From TrEMBL:
Its EC number is 4.2.3.5. One of its GO terms (molecular function) is chorismate synthase activity. NADP(+) binds at residues 39, 45. NCBIfam families: aroC (TIGR00033), PRK05382.1 (NF003793). One of its GO terms (cellular component) is cytosol. This is Chorismate synthase. Belongs to the chorismate synthase family. The lineage of its organism: Bacteria, Bacillati, Bacillota, Bacilli, Lactobacillales.
């Protein structure tokens, strides 16, 4: 399985093409629209989320709600393009009238300046920000929705939630009270902040409200948990085959993510071996299992069968309504940075995006290991493999 996305933030369309999804998978546009709506909703989001509602259209690869095994093309129309059609026109030459919204003053922390240098966009940094915008993650969530649909066929569940926004934190100790991710999902999705408790939800709202009043932005952390993955996906044989490494790359590849950890992560550096190694046990019914999950479901770059736990660090959005110092790329004179319409925080959306990226990498790992031509054959192989592992 592989995919690519295309589209600019204010362009007419956002597009993704997915290759390698098995034939026979039942999927509807509503399956994807649900996930797109989750990305758009969340406390701290900006005006654009009220302007348009993202909905997907299948252009290829699906017939009568069943995948064909051929490339799947997903399309999301940008309603906001109506106000930008002249500015973003691909077939008209540049004129004074259609280049009025130039970006000449790069934002600290954004791709504006470095991207302009790299691609020689001397006259307008909008050529950078249109693609480097997190708007592109719309299509990664769409691809992730397809991946999650596939994973559910083999009883793999994936869910993301918010750990903290600024100083306001969820109490991770409450995770132990949930029997499965369905129970956890029902709680975190009931809060606009995607927090774990009502107390954390209120505290996070207060932080976001104050940040907005201060014309500032704020970051945070999100966590993704995946359950039900077969043992042994990934490999210790080559560094680039380690599945946790692939997931780490996928997480840090999301806009604004600056760090990633598995299980106890960075806290494990302050502990001793007997405190964090997941001791091994055996049961006649389920075979080998671990007594704890401090390593986040991985050993040697391979899945252990325990829950996969991934956390990502999201920096504050670089567009501030109280802009920071910058320099005009045309005059080289000091100015305040450009202001583009933005959110106070994207952490609530980032939980959904991170969830999608983990799902994509897990789906790729499954399809690398098992038959990728037909979904029923894949399920048969997964079931046989699970039984083999159970009897080891």
């Amino acid at each position: 399985m592989r995919y690519t996305t295309a589209g600019e933030s204010h362009g007419p369309e956002e597009i993704a093409i997915i290759e390698g999804i098995p034939a026979g998978l039942h999927i509807t546009q509503e399956d994807i629209n649900e996930e797109l709506a989750r990305r758009q909703h969340g406390y701290g989001r900006g005006e654009r989320q009220q302007i348009e509602t993202d909905t997907v259209t299948f252009l290829t690869g699906v017939r009568h709600q069943i995948t064909l095994g051929s490339p799947i093309t997903l399309n999301v129309h940008n309603d906001d393009h109506n106000s930008w059609s002249k500015i973003m026109a691909p077939n008209d030459p540049a004129t004074p009238e259609n280049t009025l919204r130039k970006v000449l003053r790069p934002r600290p922390g954004h791709a504006d300046l470095v991207g302009g240098m790299k691609y020689r966009h001397h006259n307008d940094l909008r050529n950078v920000l249109e693609r480097s915008s997190a708007r592109e993650t719309t299509m990664r969530v769409a691809v992730g929705a397809v991946a999650k649909k596939l994973l559910r066929e083999i009883n793999v569940d994936v869910h993301g939630f918010v750990v903290n926004v600024g100083p306001a934190k969820s109490d991770l100790n409450v995770l132990t009270q949930y029997k499965n991710l369905q129970e956890l999902r029902a709680v975190t999705e009931s809060f606009a902040t995607r927090a774990l408790t009502a107390e954390a939800d209120e505290a996070i709202r207060q932080v976001i409200d104050k940040t907005k009043r201060d014309a500032n932005t704020v970051g945070g952390q999100v966590q993704v948990i995946a359950t039900g993955m077969p043992v042994g996906l990934g490999s210790y044989v080559s560094a680039d085959e380690k599945l946790d490494g692939k997931i780490a790359r996928a997480i840090v590849g999301i806009n604004a993510f600056k760090g990633v950890q598995f299980g106890g992560g960075f806290d494990n550096s302050e502990k001793y071996g007997d405190q964090i190694m997941d001791e091994i046990f055996w049961d006649s019914e389920k075979g080998f299992y671990r007594g704890t999950d401090n390593l986040g479901g991985f050993e040697g770059g391979m899945t252990t069968g325990e829950a996969i736990t991934v956390r990502g660090v999201v920096k504050p959005i670089p567009t501030l309504y109280r802009p920071m110092k910058s320099v005009d790329i045309d005059t080289h004179q000091e100015h305040k940075a450009s202001i583009e319409r933005s959110d106070t925080t994207a952490v609530t959306a980032a939980a959904v995006i991170a969830e999608s990226m983990v799902a994509i990498e897990l789906a790729i790992a499954v399809l690398d290991k098992f038959d990728a031509d037909n979904i029923e054959r894949m399920k048969e192989q997964v079931a046989a493999y699970r039984e083999e592992i159970r009897k080891f």
